[in-house]
Design a protein that fits this description.
This protein is mostly helical and 512 residues long. The protein has 26 helices and five strands. Helix content is 67%, strand content 5%. The termini are far apart.
C-alpha cells in the first residue's frame, strides 16, 4: 500500500513538474558514466538551465569559501589540529585514543597537506574544497526529495550559508563531516527508492567515512536506520529477506568503523566522568542550533532563523501531504539528534557545530516549501527570484563576515606583545592551552622572553614571586573561566595586574 501511495503521488506531479520545468522538453543525454562524453556534456551545459544555475552556484560557493581563506588567524581548535597533524600517523591515532574526543581522519589528511606548507591557507584548503563540493550534493539530495527545483534551492541555501562558509574556512573536520554525511543521505534516499545493494553499499561507505570524521554522526546514523526499518516495514512483513541489503549496509558500516566503535565508548566514559564546563548545554541547544544553522554567529541571525523556521514548517507540512516517508526522515533527523544531544550535554561538551551533518536535511526541508509557493504564484521563473532572494538575505551577514576578524587575532596579538616585552620578561598564558595558537605566531626566541602556561591562581602567584626585576605579562582569554571554574586565577589577575591592551578577546595584563 505504501508503495502504491508513493507511485500515485509521483503520477500526480508529472504535469506540474513539466509545467514548471526550466528545461522544457530537453532531456539530458547523460544517464550513466558511459555517457560522459565531451559532446554530451557540452549539450547539457548549453541547454539545461538547472545545470547552468547549479554550476553558477558551485562557482560562487568556491569563491565565497576561498576568498579571505587565510585572513583570520588560527584559533585554539585549529592550532590543536596543526600540532597534532605535525606528528606521525601512529601518534595521531594515539592522540585519538588518549586525547581529544575526535577520530583521526582529518588530522591524517592535514598531516599530508602540511607537506605543502604550514600556512593558514594550507591548513584550511581541504575544508574549503569539500565545503564547496557539498553544494552539488545538496542539489542531488533536493532532487531526490522531489525535483530539480527543490535541489536548486537547497544548493543555493548552502552556497550563501554563513554557517557553511564559516566552517569551510576552519581547519577542523566539520566541513568534511558535512560533505560525507550529505553523500550518505543522498545514497540512503536512493537505497530506499531502489533497494539496490550498490546504493546501500555506497551509503555505508560514506557513512563510515563520516564516522571517521566525527563521532557525533553516529547519532544521525542510528536515526537513519530507525527510519529505514519504519519505511521498509511493509516489505519486511511480506518477506524478511527484503531487508537483506539494509542489513548488509549496516554490517559494512560496522566493519569499516570497528576500530572507532571499540574506542568511542571508552573515550566517552573517560570524558563524562566530570560535568562539562563549557559549550551549549541543556534545552537551549535547540534554539542555538537552528540559529547557527540559519545565520551563523552574526547579530542578525535571529531574524533569518525565524524566517527559515517558518518556511521549514511549510516544507514539513507539504512533505507530510505528499511523501510520508520523507516527512518522517526530515522530522526524525531534525528532532532526535537534538534530543540526544541535549541529554548528552549533561555529561560531555556539546556545540551546534557538532550537528552540522543535519544541514542538508534542514535546507532541503526549507526548499520543500517551493511547491506551495508555486501554487500561490504559478510562474516557473519564480525559481530565479528565490535564488536571488537567498543571496540578498544572506548578503549582510557575509559582508560582516568578510569585513573583519571573526576569530581571535593571534597573529596581530603576537606583534603587539613584542612591542612591550624585553629580554628576561615572563610571558604567562592562562589557560595554558592557549600557548598553541599563540606560539603558531610568536617565538620567545625573538625577544628572549620566558613562557609559561598556567591554570590556577597558585601557579600565577608562584611565578610572580620568582620574576625578580623582570616584567611579568599575562595573556588570558575567556576560556579561563571554563579551565579554572573555581575562579582563583581570575581573582589573582584582578588583584595583582592592570590591563595593557585587548585584541579580539585576547587580553594582555602586566603584573604590578
Amino acid at each position: 500500500m505504501g508503495k502504491k501511495r508513493e507511485d500515485r503521488g509521483k503520477g500526480n506531479r508529472t504535469h506540474e513538474d513539466q509545467e514548471f520545468n526550466l528545461d522544457g522538453d530537453f532531456r539530458s543525454p547523460v544517464t550513466s558514466v558511459r555517457d560522459l562524453t565531451f559532446e554530451n556534456l557540452k549539450g547539457v551545459l548549453l541547454h539545461s538551465r538547472y545545470v547552468q544555475i547549479l554550476l553558477s552556484l558551485t562557482l560562487a560557493g568556491f569563491f565565497l569559501r576561498f576568498y579571505h581563506l587565510g585572513y583570520n588567524s588560527i584559533w585554539l581548535d585549529e592550532a590543536t589540529t596543526f600540532y597534532q597533524a605535525k606528528t606521525s600517523f601512529l601518534d595521531i591515532w594515539q592522540t585519538s585514543v588518549t586525547g581529544e574526543f575526535h577520530p583521526p581522519l582529518f588530522d591524517w589528511i592535514t598531516h599530508i597537506m602540511l607537506t605543502f606548507g604550514q600556512s593558514e591557507v594550507i591548513l584550511r584548503l581541504v575544508p574549503a574544497f569539500l565545503g564547496a563540493l557539498a553544494i552539488p550534493v545538496f542539489y542531488l539530495i533536493g532532487k531526490e526529495y522531489r525535483d530539480k527545483n527543490v535541489g536548486i534551492i537547497s544548493a543555493a541555501l548552502l552556497t550563501f550559508s554563513y554557517f557553511g562558509i564559516f566552517y569551510s574556512q576552519e581547519a577542523r573536520a566539520y566541513s568534511m563531516v558535512l560533505f560525507f554525511f550529505s553523500l550518505a543521505i543522498l545514497f540512503y534516499l536512493r537505497a530506499l527508492r531502489t533497494n539496490e545493494l550498490s546504493q546501500w553499499a555506497l551509503f555505508s561507505v560514506f557513512a563510515a567515512i563520516s564516522v571517521w570524521s566525527h563521532y557525533y554522526t553516529l547519532i544521525g546514523l542510528v536515526v537513519i536506520f530507525l527510519h529505514a526499518v519504519i519505511s521498509l516495514r511493509n516489505q519486511l512483513r511480506e518477506r524478511i529477506l527484503n531487508g537483506k541489503n539494509m542489513v548488509i549496509g549496516a554490517g559494512l558500516i560496522f566493519i569499516l568503523s570497528l576500530p572507532l566503535f571499540l574506542l568511542v565508548f571508552e573515550r566517552y566514559a573517560a570524558l563524562s566522568a566530570s560535568a562539562p564546563t563549557y559549550g551549549v548545554l541543556g534545552p537551549i541547544l535547540f534554539q542555538d542550533t537552528f540559529t547557527r544553522f540559519s545565520g551563523g554567529y552574526s547579530p542578525d541571525a535571529l531574524f533569518i532563523t525565524v524566517i527559515y523556521l517558518v518556511i521549514m514548517v511549510v516544507g514539513l507540512v507539504f512533505l507530510f501531504s505528499e511523501n510520508r516517508d520523507k516527512f518522517l526522515l526530515s522530522a526524525m533527523l531534525l528532532v532526535l539528534p537534538l534530543v540526544a544531544s541535549v541529554i548528552l550535554s549533561s555529561k560531555i561538551t556539546m556545540n551546534p557545530r557538532y550537528l552540522i551533518y543535519l544541514l542538508p536535511v534542514y535546507f532541503t526541508t526549507i526548499a520543500m516549501s517551493y511547491p506551495v509557493l508555486l501554487k500561490l504564484i504559478p510562474n516557473k521563473k519564480m525559481l530565479y527570484t528565490i535564488v536571488i532572494l537567498i543571496g540578498i538575505v544572506n548578503a549582510p551577514l557575509l559582508i560582516g563576515y568578510y569585513s573583519g576578524y571573526v576569530k581571535e587575532d593571534w597573529r596581530g596579538f603576537a606583534g603587539t606583545i613584542q612591542s612591550y616585552t624585553h629580554a628576561g620578561d615572563l610571558v604567562v598564558l592562562s589557560p595554558g592551552y592557549i600557548l598553541q595558537p599563540f606560539n603558531y605566531y610568536y617565538s620567545n626566541a625573538t625577544d628572549n622572553t620566558i613562557q609559561y602556561g598556567v591554570y590556577t591562581g597558585k601557579e600565577l602567584d608562584t611565578l610572580y614571586q620568582t620574576k625578580g626585576n623582570n616584567s611579568m605579562y599575562l595573556v588570558i582569554t575567556g576560556d579561563i573561566q571554563a579551565a579554572n571554574p573555581n575562579g582563583d586565577a581570575l581573582a589573582w589577575i584582578k588583584e595583582h595586574t592592570k590591563l595593557v591592551s585587548e585584541n579580539t578577546g585576547i587580553y594582555l595584563f602586566v603584573a604590578q
